[in-house]
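anyone seen this seq b4? input:
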Amino acid sequence: MRVLVLSSLYPPHALGGYEMSCADVMSRFAARGHDVTVLTTDTRLADVADEADVADVAEPQVRRQLRWYWRDHQIVQPGVRARLALERHNRATLQRTLREVAPDVVSVWSMGAMSLGLVDVLNNSGVPVLYAVCDEWPVYGPRLDGWLAGFTRRRGRAVAPVVRRLTGLPTTAPAPRAATFGWLSRFVRDRALEVAGWQPAHETVTYSGIDPADFPLTAGRETGWRWRLLCVGRVEPRKGFATAVEALATLPAEATLRIAGPDDGSHTAELTELAQRLGVVDRVTFGAVPRSELRRVYADADALLFTSAWQEPFGLVPVEAMASGTPVAAAATGGAKEFLVDGGNCLVVPARDPAALAAAVCRLADDAALRTRLVAGGHATAGDLSVDALADVMEQWHLAAAARFADGEPAHRPAPGQAAAS
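predicted toks r here
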């Protein structure tokens, strides 16, 4: 099949897991013989080289031609004329690409800060569309769309009908019409449909996955407990790393905490100040880790602390730790609830509760049999939540959408974590 992918970013110019997941799936599509073209923004991140040609390796063709309301990690709202030009450029670019590629199906991924008027183009294209929704952009997207945001205030609402008639551009977020949805989690699905009020023609929950090449299933360490604790992720308040620092202050003096991830610009300093106040600053280390080294970092830890303080759409960090044979203590928020099984593949603790987190760590320290059981359950979960399994599900649903479900819907993927719960 011919697939046209629409996404705000695409590797190597990527900021997070959404666009990485898109690339993981689409590279597998290309390797399986599908003709994949990616239409993304012209953003090029500093210190990131463009794609190199790789001989004998099938990869999607990437067109970096769209514009969006983001620059240098900030949402931007240019002047009215610039916004109008941006919208017209994006609309014309998508229409031209649809004509040139003639896709059997359009695959829509990350749309935060994008022109949501592109949904209107897809609605009128006559091409089947599958929306791979991996975060809550149907909820927050209209606020970040500089064109649409201008019509949310009273003055904007008053002129919206005239602007719509003169420009031919939508002034409210268009709802996808007769579309198929692949939701990352039931949490994302319920939240998006509740707020956006969309009505999918077909839908399934795909769940997410890690790349076995990066995180092959690894047996847990046979050495004893050393009080080496780990947090992984972008260092920002939503990740809840402050809870881990506060928990550390109540643990034995030999306990240490490594926070591995890039800083958002100021939160490392805030966490360092917190650690100083609590008297544990010499027991906490910070620093980003290349993806190629993460497996070793997980394996070197006695426990992974997943302290998310917000409603995660899914959360792959615990799955990476599970694949690496590292026990997990986790706050099960948002979509993470759908694969974190207390006593099966992790110890579940309340979010923002340092005392509960510290108690869970002490349980792990005192009970080698518990650690062994959780590692085994984690292996089952990590084996299920692979990128290959995700690509299989996405391929089946894209093929069905391209065929307009002539043979009905493919099978729905079972919920993860069931093996760990049994």
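The mean pLDDT is 94. The two ends are 39 Å apart (CA to CA). kinda curious what u guys think
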